[in-house]
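Technical annex B. To support the medicinal chemistry partners, we prepared a structural model of the target in complex with thymidine-5'-diphosphate, based solely on the information shown next.
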Amino acid sequence: MVLQEIAIKNFFLTLSKWNFEIDFEMNQIDDCRIIQLPRITDPRGNLSFIEGGRHIPFDIKRVYYLYDVPGGADRGSHAHKNLQQFIIAMSGSFDVNLDDGKNKQRFHLNRSYYGLYVCPMMWRKLDNFSSGAVCLVLASDYYDESDYIRDYDEFLKLAGMQRT
Ligand code: TYD
């Protein structure tokens, strides 16, 4: 390989490393938090609302929900490289177990007027679903399988790289 080709190859290697580093922002469990939503109480029934970028720290691009979860089942068990999510128990209750590769925390969700903000690079497992529970998830981006980390060892490796 001539010197010029080597220089070009090294340039692109450096560029891809740099891109990798900016994609993965520093995310720790303390960045995840319960957010209380506005609540308009009324004898006819209560009302809550969520405005993207105002009540939660991202614009909402996608909404999905889990329902008819059988007793004892769990969901999740993956992390996202860049996706931000806000999780609400619209009905019933369940637990969200978060793990940033160093620290772990369990959140019990059981009201529709608050939710859990989950930042990127957070391993999550949802379990302990009550019967009839409905889990609503607001997401910062469209579905993209390449944003998932589904292997826990790979997650630990990437989370560790973030900290160095
Ligand atoms: P997944 O996020 O893996 O759910 P869980 O971790 O709780 O099992 O999604 C399960 C399946 O649903 C997977 O095949 C991808 C698909 N899916 C979509 O097509 N669009 C979506 O918005 C979501 C969340 C999942």
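Notes passed to the chemistry partners:
Residues 85 and 139 are 5 Å apart (CA to CA).
Helices lie at 3-23, 152-163.
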